[in-house]
Amino acid sequence: MLKKVRVLIVDDSALVREILDRGLSLDPGIEVVGRASDVYAARDKIVFLKPDVITLDIEMPGMDGVEFLKRLMPQYPLPVVVVSSLSLEGSRITLDALKAGAVDYIPKPSSNIGSGLKDMILELSDKIKTAAAVDVSKWKKSRDRQIGEAVFAQAALDNSTDKVIAIGASTGGTIAIDKIIRSFPSNMPGTVIVQHMPPVFTKMFAESLNKTSRVEVKEAENGDRVITGRVLIAPGGYQMEVTRSGGQYRVKCFEGEKVNSHCPSVDVLFKSVASSAGSNAVGVILTGMGRDGADGMLAMHRAGARNLAQDEETCVVYGMPKEAVKTGGVDKTVSLFDLTDSIVRMIQDMRG
């Protein structure tokens, strides 16, 4: 019999605590061992209850969830799944929580119990069980380590305006993408990214990256050009494809069905890049749960693209990269901290 994942629920709303407790307790693989109405009560219950995973509300009176994480993780590292509102402020704080060590996040349930609650609980259950298997000590080892700018990047990227970089990520991807994009030189080829995120979050994520990067980073809008020095993040709730007309690459953002349970989907992006860019593309699959991107990466490989996967050691969840490797679409598996250099070297080889 499999050991149940022991969960501590931390939320200042009694209604939300009750909803989460009842919903999660229906999963035979999860045991809710306690509830806490604030981080002070949570701190004491962590010591006595020894949960495997914490669900954490981040907008609470007194000490908020982000400050709690900053104090908790260095001393008592535990997998944390943030339960956040979909507001602008909620999404901003959620990004801060992920930087502070949270493994994943999910939008907070509505007080209307019938409004999408069942799907939310199922998704949260999956995220909790995935989080329970995460080695949080990896976060401590890598949190302050940044990727150096690729060696000889300026020269290597000259005359690479017809190249496209496509990146896909899920659980743990916000931190990985942040480190990669910060390391991009200003003349990096046009880059398109799918990070599994709901609406609002993607815009805040793009704006956050833009403030700390040498390239322009923005949430993609339909018709945006994919050009040197620009990174386009697929908007939450929309599928994104890359199209080519003459010598120009553009993105098409549209409302579509979920693919692999995701909208945006990495497979949708990668398959479009295979069709529109072919051997002029480099694909990168990062940390994440599931297999979204595996088929698309294989399509890119068959079209002549060069593909990279993040290695298991630096992944928060070695799911998506593992599946892409198994499918046969990956040319090389590398550490997160070698990815930018590897991308540049691939682009340089493509010119040879």
Task: Explain this structure.
With 352 residues, the chain is of the alpha/beta class. The protein has helices at residues 14-25, 39-49, 65-75, 88-99, 117-132, 137-142, 153-156, 173-183, 201-212, 266-276, 294-302, 320-327, 339-351; strands spanning 5-10, 30-36, 53-57, 80-84, 104-107, 164-169, 190-195, 216-219, 230-233, 239-245, 248-254, 281-285, 306-310, 332-334. The protein folds into two domains: 5-140, Response regulator (Rossmann fold); 153-351, Rossmann fold. The protein contains 13 helices and 14 strands. Strands 8-9-7-6-12-13-14 form a seven-stranded parallel β-sheet, with helices on both faces. Strands 2-1-3-4-5 form a five-stranded parallel β-sheet, sandwiched between helices. A two-stranded antiparallel ribbon has the order 10-11. Strand 4 (80-84), helix 4 (88-99) and strand 5 (104-107) form a beta-alpha-beta unit. Helix 3 (65-75) packs parallel to helix 4 (88-99), helix 10 runs parallel beside helix 11 and helix 11 (294-302) runs parallel beside helix 12.
Question: What key phrases describe this protein's structure?
Answer:
352 residues; Rossmann fold; seven-stranded parallel β-sheet; five-stranded parallel β-sheet; 21% strand; elongated
Q: Could you write a compact summary of the structure shown?
A:
The protein has 352 residues and is an alpha/beta fold.
CATH architecture of the largest domain: 3-Layer(aba) Sandwich
Structural shape: elongated
- The fold-level CATH name of the largest domain is Rossmann fold
* CATH class identity of the largest domain: Alpha Beta
- Major beta sheet, strand line-up: 8-9-7-6-12-13-14
Distance from first to last alpha carbon: 56 Å
| Number of beta strands | 14
Largest β-sheet summary: 7 strands, parallel
Annotation field: number of helices: 13
Overall number of domains: 2
Instruction: Please state the structural category.
Output: alpha/beta
The average pLDDT value, as a whole number, equals: 89
CATH superfamily membership of the largest domain? Methylesterase CheB, C-terminal domain
H-E string:
EHEHEHEHEHHHEHEHEEEEHEHEHEH
